[in-house]
Amino acid sequence: MRKPAECETMAHIRAEIDRVDEDLVRLFAERTGYIDRAAQIKVGADLPARIDSRVEEVVQNVRRHAATYGLPPELVEKLWRRLIDWSIAREENHLGPDSLRKG
């Protein structure tokens, strides 16, 4: 593993980007495991896939993390809202659409 400043060639840069991308995919897969478990728990608790207060809590958390790491919070929020929508759709595969759930 090289730090960005230690990369002397494009081959070094590309290798490190590929390494980071693999780490990101692994972390997304780990996150997905928690999403699947949440869906199982929500079935028993009769909770919907989308809980707006939790969505906003997650968004605020990632905006704060983005600022901490020097990334634009607006960009990270856009990415995470897409991830959240995908996660909710995945939960709905287990639960059924929120619109069809009793409530």
UniProtKB/TrEMBL annotation:
The keyword Nucleus does not apply. The keyword Isomerase applies. GO terms for molecular function: carbon-oxygen lyase activity; chorismate mutase activity. GO terms for biological process: chorismate metabolic process; salicylic acid biosynthetic process. Keywords: Isomerase. Its EC number is 5.4.99.5. Residues 4-95 form the Chorismate mutase domain. Substrate binds at R14, R31, K42, E91. This is chorismate mutase.
